[in-house]
Write a structure and sequence with these properties.
The complex is a heterodimer of chains A (about 170) and B (about 600).
Chain A (H helix, E strand, L loop, with lengths): L17 H9 L46 H13 L2 H5 L22 H10 L9 H16 L17
Helix pairs in contact in A: 1-2, 2-5, 4-5
Chain B lengths: L1 H31 L15 E2 L13 E7 L11 E3 L2 E5 L6 E5 L7 E5 L21 E3 L2 E6 L3 E6 L5 E6 L14 E3 L2 E5 L10 E6 L5 E6 L24 H4 L17 E4 L4 E5 L20 E5 L6 E6 L15 E7 L2 E9 L4 E6 L5 E6 L6 E4 L6 E3 L11 E5 L14 E3 L4 E7 L1 E7 L13 E2 L2 E3 L6 E7 L4 E8 L8 E3 L3 E5 L4 E6 L5 E6 L9 E4 L5 E7 L4 H5 L21 H4 L5 E6 L1
Parallel strand pairs in B: 1-33
Antiparallel strand pairs in B: 2-39, 3-4, 4-5, 5-6, 7-8, 8-9, 9-10, 11-12, 12-13, 13-14, 15-16, 16-17, 17-18, 19-20, 20-21, 21-22, 23-24, 25-28, 26-27, 27-31, 28-29, 28-30, 31-32, 33-34, 34-35, 35-36, 37-38, 38-39
Classes of the chains: A mainly alpha (about 170), B mainly beta (about 600).
Chain lengths: ~170, ~600
């Protein structure tokens, strides 16, 4: 029997695939676990993707997370690149409109839509299959993605879908 | 190691010689006693039952006699089993196993088994959290869990006998296929063609679950269990084809998953199974034929030895998995009896092969095809339309038929009736554009790099249900359907054929003409496979799951109602499907 492979590439950026690595370097965020600006506490430890930590979505008491790149269009553009190169699109769809993972552009959020909540979802993972990417991306990489997701144009929230009166 | 393998091979040759006749007799008995003990009814994967109480004359009076909500909303692919007085049902994740007592009036549960299963599997399954069914053998139910385990459960008590990890979520492997058991080997494979897995088939010990052999679907001969003098491909020669037909070491992340059904010929002692798409979706990242992705492989169940292989779609450019059923039938072709293998491929061609050696006998399009003009019977290769080649340097390539959903989904297994000599299959009438870009491989995340918007194909309806003559490669009749058709087929000795539709109709039709005999709206789209059985009350019944899902949970995301935070626009080629159906897992039983 062939032994199960052990996957430890996250946290070891030297083994990241070239395209992802290039995107990270381009964004200046190839430093997993680098401290995020605006945090009142030490940075969360890097977590391994394979652990798929399902954290439950409540931040440690006293920890305030603030997006250091909020509203920065250049960072958002980098985040769009990162969204593809980290294969986020493989689950959430090319325009983040949903595939096996939920739509991220409908203005509705399973685990909260505030910057800090979206950060937590990406960094720590969520229990319905969202892996923890904090170890791979580092805090700054995650903030870059959050900044991109914030720029998605929200459609009007229409709770009704009607097939009559068209 | 080598010595051990040789000894094992010899032991298995002996067992095969002694057990062949017994296995054949067992398969024959199961075929005629009114049970349904294997996913595809028999080793030949015919989905044909000898039961004939239901006929074209009386089918109009079919009506539901019992239903049960599984409590699970994922796509209900696969089918129940009926063994003696018990019906067994496996749900999508979390893969609950129900055992219903058919000897009592309201079919109460004898027991239910709720396996220890990881929720992390949900995020590693490409295309909904489906399960394609269980296998019954010697008092045991054997099936796979999405999170990469195989379990054996006592069929009488529901007690877990063993639970063994066979696949690795961390590298993108999940398990959705139904196992097949041959003698004391449990044969399993993993999904993950969208995650760049190193695809494989494994043989487990039925008594312990221990992995006895692992055979990769590509890579060097040693990894593929190609042993000296054992392998003869009908159209290829040379060592290490599974590695040399991939640029560099791209075979290591080349996909070729196993998520469809497996069939078995006891006389030849050969397993037949199809492999999925090559990964990633940008073919320029893996130049070469990419053997043996998108192929059919024939192996010895005892030790996994590869005997022959044939590739339907060399250098897959279009996500044309070949994981659909390999149906074994003895046909007469041009006046000659042939041990045939018939396969409806995602690439839109139906293939008839000689199953003793893998040589191609017939190949004809059963759905609209633009990527190739035909399949050359001399070389076994498709004659490509160069304008439909895809890749990251080619931009958006338009007008490719079939779509990445396939001319038929491998999730929708066909049936074969030895009475009509016809094969019955669902089809999809969809085309696509294909825009690929270079994908980065991060183990456990999607390894795709593609955008493939779909559109309606030519002609009437987005799908159909067809009867096919595999000896001549000819469509005999076709029932157009409004939506892509995604259910499996069931054929019976009463000359009634059954299937379901994506908008939730369950239909019985005349096997010879396709005329609809009965239809009933089952509450959710049908992506499962109907079965039939004789119950303890002596009557013939037909069972099927309702429960839209699989790719359709993703493509028509507005059929969901369970998550207020995930709201999606309807797909533009199938805008009104949500008007006719929504999610919901229900077991239906019909009787006269």
């Amino acid at each position: 029997m062939r032994p199960m492979r052990h996957h430890d590439i996250f946290g070891h950026s030297a083994r990241l695939a070239p395209a992802a690595l290039a995107a990270l370097v381009l964004l200046g965020c190839a430093r997993p676990g680098s401290p995020q600006a605006g945090a009142a506490a030490p940075p969360p430890p890097g977590v391994s993707y394979v652990d798929h930590l399902a954290a439950g979505g409540i931040l440690p008491p006293g920890l305030v997370l603030r997006n250091p790149h909020a509203g920065d269009a250049g960072v958002a553009k980098g985040g769009a690149l990162l969204f593809k190169s980290m294969n986020c699109d493989g689950c959430h769809g090319g325009d983040a409109s949903g595939w096996v993972g939920p739509n991220l552009g409908d203005g509705r959020w399973r685990y909260g839509g505030a910057d800090a909540e979206v950060f937590s979802s990406i960094y720590y993972g969520r229990p319905k299959g969202m892996p923890a990417f904090g170890g791979a991306l580092g805090a700054d990489g995650v903030w870059t993605l959050v900044t991109y997701l914030r720029t998605l144009p929200l459609p009007p929230d229409l709770p009704t879908e009607s097939w009559e009166d068209k | 190691m080598l010595r051990t393998a040789l000894v094992m091979a010899m032991v298995w040759l002996g067992a095969a010689a002694a057990g062949g006749a017994h296995a054949a007799a067992a398969a024959g008995r199961e075929a005629s006693d009114g049970q349904w003990t294997m996913p595809s009814k028999d080793y030949a994967a015919t989905r044909y039952s000898e039961l004939k109480d239901i006929t074209p004359q009386n089918a109009h009076s079919l009506h539901p006699v019992w239903t049960f909500s599984t409590g699970v909303l994922g796509g209900h692919e696969g089918q129940p089993l009926v063994v003696g007085g018990t019906m067994y049902v496996v749900t999508p994740w979390p893969n609950v196993l129900y055992a219903f007592d058919l000897t009592r009036e309201d079919y109460p549960l004898r027991w239910k088994y709720r396996p220890d299963i990881s929720a992390n599997a949900i995020g590693v399954a490409c295309c909904d959290t489906v399960n394609r069914g269980a296998f019954y053998v010697d008092g045991r139910i054997v099936y796979n869990l999405l999170d990469g385990h195989t379990v054996a459960v006592d069929a009488r008590t529901g007690r877990e006998l063993w639970r063994v990890r066979i696949a690795d979520l961390g590298s993108g492997e999940t398990v959705t296929m139904a196992p097949i058991v041959v003698r004391d080997r449990v044969i399993v494979g993993a999904s993950g063609g969208e995650f760049g897995i190193y695809g494989w088939l494994k043989g487990l010990d039925l008594n312990t679950g221990q992995v006895v052999w692992t055979a990769h679907n590509m890579g060097p001969d040693a990894d593929m269990l190609i042993r000296p003098g054992t392998f003869k491909a009908p159209y290829d020669s040379g060592a290490d084809l599974g590695a040399h037909s991939w640029a560099g070491d791209s075979w290591r992340t080349g996909g070729a998953p196993v998520w469809g059904s497996i069939s078995y010929d006891p006389e030849l002692d050969l397993l037949y199974y199809g492999t999925g798409n090559a990964a990633p979706y940008d073919p320029e990242q893996r130049l070469g034929d990419n053997k043996w992705s998108a192929s059919v492989l024939a192996r010895r169940p005892g030790d996994g030895t590869l005997v022959w292989a044939y590739q339907f779609t060399p250098h897959d450019n279009w996500d044309y998995d070949a994981t659909g059923a390999m149906i074994l039938a003895d046909l007469t072709i041009a006046g000659h009896p042939v041990k045939a293998l018939v396969h409806f491929d995602k690439n839109g061609f139906a293939y008839t092969l000689d199953r003793t050696n893998g040589r191609l006998l017939v190949a004809a399009a059963f759905a609209p095809v633009t990527w190739a003009r035909a399949v050359d019977l001399q070389s076994g290769r498709p004659l490509l339309d160069a304008a439909k080649a895809t890749g990251s340097s080619r931009g958006n390539v338009k007008g490719i038929c079939p779509s990445a959903e396939g001319g038929v989904s491998p999730s929708s297994p066909p049936a074969y009736s030895p009475r009509t000599h016809l094969f019955y299959s669902s089809t999809n009438n969809l085309c696509m554009d294909y825009e690929a870009w270079r994908a980065s491989h991060l183990a456990g995340t999607p390894f795709m790099g593609v955008n493939t918007p779909y559109s309606a194909g030519p002609g009437t309806g987005l799908g159909s249900f067809i009867a096919w003559d595999a000896a001549s490669g000819r469509k005999v009749w076709e029932n157009p359907e409004r939506y892509p058709n995604w259910s499996g087929a069931l054929a019976t000795a009463g000359d009634v054929v059954f299937y379901g539709t994506l908008d939730g109709w369950f239909k019985s039709v005349d096997a010879r003409s396709g005329k609809v005999l009965s239809k009933f709206k089952v509450g959710s789209g049908v992506v499962g496979n109907p079965i039939t059985y004789r119950a303890p009350d002596g009557r013939q019944y037909v069972a099927v799951y309702a429960g839209i899902g699989g790719d359709w949970a993703l493509l028509a995301g507005d059929t969901r109602s369970d998550d207020p935070t995930d709201v999606r626009a309807p797909a533009d080629y199938i805008k009104d499907i949500a008007r006719h159906t929504s999610q919901g897992g229900i077991i239906w039983i019909f009787g006269l």
